[in-house]
Each structure stands twice: as C-alpha cells, then as structure tokens.
Design goal:
Blueprint (H helix, E strand, L loop, with lengths): L34 E2 L29 E6 L5 E6 L4 E8 L6 E3 L22 E2 L18 E3 L5 E6 L5 E9 L2 E2 L3 E2 L3 E8 L5 E4 L7 H4 L4 E6 L10 E6 L9 E4 L21 E6 L2 E2 L17 E3 L6 E3 L1 H15 L16 E3 H11 L2 E5 L4 E4 L5 E5 L2 E4 L1 E3 L8 E3 L7 E6 L4 E6 L4
Parallel strand pairs: 4-13, 5-12, 19-27, 20-26
Antiparallel strand pairs: 1-3, 2-15, 3-4, 6-9, 7-8, 8-9, 9-12, 10-11, 14-15, 14-28, 16-29, 17-18, 17-22, 21-25, 22-23, 24-25, 28-29
C-alpha cells in the first residue's frame, strides 16, 4: 500500500452551500467507462473539494447504455475519452465532490502515466472568460475561489489541507464516446499546477457535477473484495440501467430545505438515514440521533466512493471501539495509529483471531435495509504486517459527519438512482 494518507481521498466537502436543484430531467444518459485503480499521489490526499453550482444545462443527450469492468485497490480510477478527437484521461470516481477536473499539467513526475490532456489537440475545447457568470464571486453555491488571469481567462484554485495547491482554468469540453456519441460541452477544471497523476470525476448532487451536467439518471458500481495490497480484483461499473437492480433494496436520500442553514453539513452529498450498528449480531447502544444531522449539520451520514475507509462521529466510534476492546482488547497493537486515524490495529499474528472474534459488522438503515460487512472485510491489511479495523474517528479528519467509504462497500452493488432520489444496495460477489 502507498503512503499512509492514500485512503483519505476527497472527503472534506463540508462547505457553506445551498441545496442543489431537483435533478429530475426528461433526457437521460446511460454510459460506462473503463476503470483501473492506482494509489493516488500524496497531493491527492486530504483535499477540500470546493463545490459550486449554476443554471442547469438544457442540452439534449441521447440515452446510451455502457458497462465496464474495473480494478480496485484504494480508489476507483475511471478513464474517460475527453475532447475531439478523444484523449484518455484518468479521473477518480468520486461521489463526494462536484467539480470534475482533468490533468493539464505537463510537468508531472516522470513516474506517472502520460495522460496529461493537451487542449491544443482538441477542436471542442474552450476556456471560460473572466466575464462568464461562473467566474464571478459570491454567487450561490460558487465557493470555488476564482480570479482573472493575465489572459483574461477564468482561473480557479484548489487549496489542499497538506499545504499544496492545484490550479488552472475553468473550461468547456466534450466527452466523446464510441459510435461518435458525445456529451454537450461540460464545465471542467483544467489543472495546470498540480502534482497529481489523475483528475476527479465529480459525481455528487451538485448542479455542475458530471451526472448533473450529463443528465445521468442512474449509475452504479460493485467494489470487489480486496485481496491484499498487490492483487487487484475486478469489479463492474454502470452509467445507466443496471440489469441487477430488481434485486436491490433502496433507501430514500435525506433532503433538507434550502432555507435551512447547516454550516457543518454538505447538502450535495448522498445522505442516508442510518439507524444503528451491529457487531457479531449484537446491536450497539448508539442513539439514532448520532447518525442524523443536528441543527448545525453535525452527524450527517453519507456514502462516498472517493473515501477508502469508514469514519464515525465520536459517540458512535467510541461504542464501536469499546466493543472491539471487549472482544479482543489484549490483542490490540498498543499505541499504534495508522494514517493518524485508525487506532484499532493488530499484528499479523493476531489479525485472524481478531477478525474471527469481532465477527460480521452490520450497518443498519431505514426500512430494514442493511449493509452486512463480512468479518473478512472488517480488517484491512495496511502494510508492514499490520491489520486495522477500517473505521476511524471523524474528529481525526476535522469533520463532524459519518462517512461510509468504499472499503465497506465491497461485494455490494451500490446504485445511485438520481431520478427517484434514492440509493440501492444488492449483495453480490463482485467480479
């Protein structure tokens, strides 16, 4: 496994935003793309994703259906054919962010794949001028810092929590698919200053996420079981109708009035009504209120493809840790914390016994829907012979929300049904 920060991917999306407009549209898009997985570069970690919105696009997009396999390690990396003619671009599939951006930096480290986008080779590429409405400050939902560069073009900046910076221009560009089918020009970031090897495919509920601009009504993925740090098993990704959806159990997304001010909440995330946690068949004594946003937005529970592990607010985390200590306390690795967040860890010699003793873990939601995490998936091999329970304190990230990461979405269909404002789950052996 790469640097210890590699799993903290694009989850600090808790800015002062207004509720996104209803995403229901008559036109639908159904696509799928080739996916691979690679450890993210260090500057891809601990990022605050600035989100923004504008008027919904009105372009008509034909209904398409595509399916693709992908490999899974720590993040899902989708390869999109961007531009005319298309150039393959690697982007992190991230349901926790809105702005999609591609890597236009020609000064990337030599060890990274040669996937930098060259605007001069695309006939459909255009840059937003400074007088574009999205480039004006203090408009609703537009919290991405922008300015006018020396060429009178709209310049944006990503400020990372680790002190680094990625910046570039806001642009319009098409995504060109097989059979000569393309999207309308989409608003993207074109990063010219960044150490990242890949960009971001923003998939949240914001009006300028990829799914909103392309009018995607459904998308789904199946994360396969992780088998150590070197083996990358294959999973499946759909944009559009999933033929397995008749077996899914659905949870309605929680929505909030636009007038409701909740400074600690991300209103553009996929927020679920979680009600409890079971370990080894035992329901922990955690109030349901812990999993719901309070008056300030603290306690929101979201599902995020761009975060590797699961993070819980202190009241929930402490109950989980107390149960782990009760079951396998003497086997815990004393004084050890992985990635500044995971502190329920074991040496390899104790990890199998610990996994058996802890047993299956179940995340409980409204309507009796459950995500059952098999005991084999409760602990993760973090390298160096150490295995950790894949749950950390949200406080260690400086947030006050619960996040269900992709590690605890293994062997599970997860469908984001935007037209019906719900998320579906289906147990399966992903491959």
């Amino acid at each position: 496994m790469g640097t210890y920060k590699a799993f903290l991917i694009f989850f600090l999306n808790f800015l002062h935003l207004s509720i996104a407009k209803n995403l229901q549209e008559n036109n639908t898009l159904s696509l799928s793309f080739p996916l691979t997985t690679t450890p993210l570069s260090q500057s891809s970690t601990l990022k605050s994703n600035y989100l923004f919105s504008s008027k919904a696009m009105t372009n008509t997009i034909p209904s398409l259906n595509y399916k693709s396999n992908f490999k899974y390690s720590m993040a899902l990396i989708v390869t999109l054919p961007i531009g005319t003619p298309p150039q393959d671009q690697q982007m992190v599939l991230d349901t926790g962010s809105q702005l999609s951006w591609i890597q236009c930096n020609k000064k990337l480290p030599k060890k990274t794949p040669p996937t930098t986008f060259d605007p001069s080779l695309s006939s459909s590429f255009s840059v937003l001028p400074c007088n574009h409405p999205l480039c004006k400050p203090r408009i609703p939902d537009f919290t991405l810092p922008t300015s006018c560069d020396q060429n009178r073009l709209c310049h944006y900046s990503y400020f990372y929590a680790d002190g680094t910076l990625a910046e570039g221009n806001l642009v319009r560009e098409k995504i060109t698919f097989p059979n000569s089918q393309t999207t309308p020009p989409l608003i993207l970031g074109c990063a010219t200053e960044s150490r990242d090897a890949e960009g971001i495919l923003g998939m949240n509920l914001g009006r300028y996420s990829f799914v909103s601009q392309a009018k995607v009504q459904k998308f789904s993925y199946c994360v396969p079981h992780k088998q150590g740090n070197k083996i990358m098993p294959s999973g499946t990704f759909y944009l559009g109708q999933n033929p397995n959806s008749h077996r899914f159990q659905y949870i309605n997304l929680l929505t909030f009035p636009q007038s409701q001010s909740m400074p600690n909440m991300d209103p553009l995330a996929y927020t679920l009504g979680m009600v409890g946690i079971k370990m080894g068949g035992k329901r922990l004594n955690i109030s349901e209120k812990v999993f719901r946003p309070d008056a300030g937005g603290s306690g929101q529970t979201m599902i995020d493809s761009g975060t590797q592990y699961t993070f819980l607010v202190e009241e929930a985390y402490s109950k989980v840790r107390d149960e782990v200590v009760r079951l396998v306390g003497p086997k815990l690795k004393k004084g050890y914390v992985f990635g500044e967040s995971l502190d329920m860890c074991f040496d390899a010699i104790n990890s199998v016994q610990a996994s058996q003793a802890i047993g299956d873990m179940t995340l409980e939601f409204e309507n009796g829907v459950e995500i059952v995490i098999n005991k084999e998936n409760v602990l993760d091999d973090v390298g160096g012979g150490v295995h950790c329970v894949g749950i950390g304190r949200s406080q260690s990230l400086g947030i006050a929300s619960n996040i269900i990461g992709n590690f605890h979405q293994q062997n599970l269909w997860v469908e984001f049904d935007l037209s019906n404002k719900r998320v579906g789950f289906g147990k399966v052996e992903c491959k």
